[in-house]
Design brief:
Layout (H helix, E strand, L loop, with lengths): L1 E4 L10 H4 L3 E4 H20 L2 H34 L2
Antiparallel strand pairs: 1-2
Amino acid sequence: MTYRVGLAPCAPGMPRATTARTYELRGAEMIARLIQILAVLTASATLAGCELIGNVFQAGVWVGVIVVVAIIGLVIFIISRVFR
């Protein structure tokens, strides 16, 4: 089964082909698109915006801390090898 999805013309008298994008969704594509839409809707309904942003920044801080510690450890290792 094929479903056609598209937009209506912008103004009366304008040809549909120049104002709309039409594409076809078939079986598995339709289900995949539906799952994507449901996932976004579920995430937006269940996660508070501020909480989500806070978690992203918190994860970023920890990644930064780990990278800085790794770089300091690498510098100490290189200096210890040079002065051996």
